[in-house]
Amino acid sequence: MRVAPAWTLGILAGGESRRLGRDKATVPFAGTTLLQHVAGRLAPEGVPVIVATRPDGPGRDLGYPWVPDELPGEGPLSGATALLYACETPFLLLVPCDAPLLPPLIGDRLLDRAPGVDGVLAVAEGRTWPLPALLTVDLAPLFRSLLEGGARRADAWLEHAPAALIPFEDLCPGVSPERAFLNVNTPEDLVRAEAIFTEEGVRVDPESAP
After folding, report:
1. What does the DSSP assignment read for 98-133?
2. What is the pLDDT of residues 132-160, one digit of tens each?
């Protein structure tokens, strides 16, 4: 049990999910919902969870504190800004609700690389992934300023604050980035994610064992 967690899990759940045909947060996955699965997978015991969604959006009644997007319908930076202002720990682990296969220890592994920077991102498959992102709450005013200036991307802050860009294979050795970063955007993606999760079965990261 973490008495004083260093980070909070912040889940983005305000997208309209047009390609999936329904709100992603409430889509059934592994016996629960996508949002609840992501929360249970990525937040160790004692780590707070907060959800950013539309004022009338999904995730408000799934058992977690929630905050309204700063500018509903205006992209992930809107939800990220709301989460940073609501966060009561030094860092926020920002993730989307549609990434059910992210490694369970990703928060602590990003935190290990956080000293001296304002945020930590993973690099894989020749690109820097905007999410998951470990962010210091000191970034909140910058995020709001960027949002008010018309920025919408979750990684808009990268040009304005120091970041550590860490190869994914260093963060999670032996984990396939293609699987880890799979987003559920379509019904086909959902089927694939469920199949991979079932295939993983009871296998766990050795470092997560007691």
Report:
1. T-TTS-TTHHHHHHTT-TTSSEEEEEETTEEEEEEE
2. 999 999 999 999 999 999 999 999 999 99
84 contacts 92 by C-beta, under 8 angstroms:
yes
Kindly report the CATH number assigned to the domain that includes residue 197: 3.90.550.10
pLDDT higher than 70, residue 202: no
The Cα-based distances of 32 to 14, 35, 100, 201 in angstroms read 19, 8, 12, 16
State how many domains the chain has. Answer: 1
Bridge partners (DSSP) listed for residue 67: 52
Cβ atoms within 10 Å, residue 42: 22
CA distance 98 to 182: 8
Read off φ and ψ for residue 56, nearest 5 degrees: -110, 20
Predicted TM-score (pTM) of the model is 0.91
Non-local CB neighbours of 128 within 8 Å, separated by 6+ positions? 121, 122, 155, 158, 165
pLDDT at 162 over 60: yes
Tokens 């905050």 identify what position? 67
Structural domain includes residue 133: yes
State percent of the chain over pLDDT 90.
80
Distance CA 164, CA 134 (A): 10
Return the pLDDT at 203: 46
In a domain, 206, yes or no: no
The domain of 13 spans: 7-201
